[in-house]
Amino acid sequence: MVKSAPEGERSMPVFRGVTELALDAKGRFAVPARHRDAIVAESGSALVLTADPSRCLLLYPLAAWEPIQARLMALSSFDERIRGLQRLIVGHADDVEIDASGRILVPPALRRYASLDKRVVLVGQGRKFELWDDAAWAARTAQAIAFDGGGLPPELDGFSL
């Protein structure tokens, strides 16, 4: 689902929902039409696909990615942890486009990083998407439901749905 701005206001789309997809033999997947239209309206067909420390991929419309990259690269590279994160996230960042058939090609290095094969899951996360191998997504979901580590974090005290 994509949330839109009130009439007369231009805001960036909010992506949400879980969509099971297939990668073709060349490593492409079809962007669901409900998301594709919002992405194209905001950034044309330009997107950035990069690695996430969780071993999934992050997919950003170019307009949402640029401030993140600038902020990350403005951090001091003298801290080895920061430099490692810069290498991972910016170093793996790849400019990708939605092709005329509504597909995105996942570069081979990123497919290997996230262990993507044929079945993948596209997860809306507000301003970006996560792209997971379907088995890794199922395992991560099971872990989240189990509340590993002794329950909910204190920031969620009093939070209800």
Features of the shown structure:
5 helices, alpha+beta, 161 residues, seven-stranded antiparallel β-sheet, globular, two-stranded antiparallel sheet
Number of separate strands: 9
Architecture (CATH level 2) name = 3-Layer(aba) Sandwich
Number of domains: 1
Share of helix, binned: 25-40%
Describe it.
- With 161 residues, this protein is α+β, with helices and mostly antiparallel strands.
- The chain has five helices and nine strands.
- Strands 1-2-8-9-5-4-6 form a seven-stranded antiparallel beta sheet. The chain has a two-stranded antiparallel ribbon with strand order 3-7.
- The N terminus is likely disordered.
Short précis:
The chain is an alpha+beta fold and 161 residues long. The chain is 32% helix and 28% strand.
